[in-house]
Amino acid sequence: MPDQSVPDSVEVVVVGGGPAGLSTALNLARARRRVLVVDGNRPRHAATLIARGFLTRDGVPPLELRRLGREEVDAYDNAQVVFAQVGSVEVEGTGFRVRARGVRGGADVDVLAATLVLATGVTETMPAIPSIRAYYGTQLHSCVECDGFEKADKPLALIGESADLAERALLLTQWTDDLIVFTNGIASVSADEERALARLGVGVERRPIDDLVGDKGVMTGVRLADGTVVERAGGFVRPAWSPALDFAAGLDLDRDGDGYVVTDRQGRTSLPGVYAAGETTAPGPQQLIVAAGSGAVVASAVNRDLIGIQVDERAVL
Length: 317
Fold this sequence. Notes:
Blueprint: E1 9-15, H1 19-30, E2 35-39, H2 62-74, E3 79-92, E4 95-102, E5 109-118, E6 122-125, H3 132-135, E7 140-141, H4 144-147, E8 156-160, H5 165-172, E9 179-182, H6 191-199, E10 203-205, E11 209-215, E12 218-224, E13 229-231, E14 235-238, E15 240-243, E16 274-276, H7 288-306
Parallel strand pairs: 1-2, 1-5, 2-3, 5-16, 7-14, 8-9, 8-14, 9-10
Antiparallel strand pairs: 3-4, 4-5, 6-15, 11-12, 12-13
Helix pairs in contact: 1-2, 1-7
């Protein structure tokens, strides 16, 4: 990103430089919109070494994918990516004032935008297990669709404290017939769910977890609070997710019960001029290609709205 001088005003500010935000910006740049991407450069998947399932990029490191995306956006004279942490977003006149502090050599931002796209994704809170971060992104993953194939036919753990563990365990049986669900003494797996899992050969371990164990950086098992070690060659963890939207507290946006932004199918929020892309609208499949696709959809809506075209979703142009 050679040019770090930031304009005073643009048509669109995209907050978030992951696949959703960069895809939004790229498509808007190609629509000849003046676009600024403001990215705090602290991606949630920084610990993940390889991303899977992205057509033509299967196996690419996520950080490399972001770098390539930034270069593609910056190649357009009417688009720019700047590393800055957004502190506030406020309505100003008919637009939005975005203020951010530069990070990693990025410039400070104080810009007025006609349109705002929120693409900051989610933050995740892991179960309170001391060594969980040591194995996260290598032996432990959160996205079954992303990493299930590489874990196929191995003895796996599914660790979590949420109410959907049984559902995620059923999904994992697509890849392994040696799976144990660890509830850490917290998650609710009903007796009916446990019986259904047992019919598929899936065990449920309800005792609290002390820590994960490993050898030379490779996870080898789960140590329970009573000292029992259950051998496992990695697996999956279910974090608690929440939208990364503290900076947007000043915007009057409709949210769901978990704090995610409510949008229509094109990413329009309840506040005219504000859109949301990717997991900012609720965590679904966590594949990068899904986020990028969401960004392309939002870019189309933004461009149409900026030129005053209101299209009935049922119409065919």
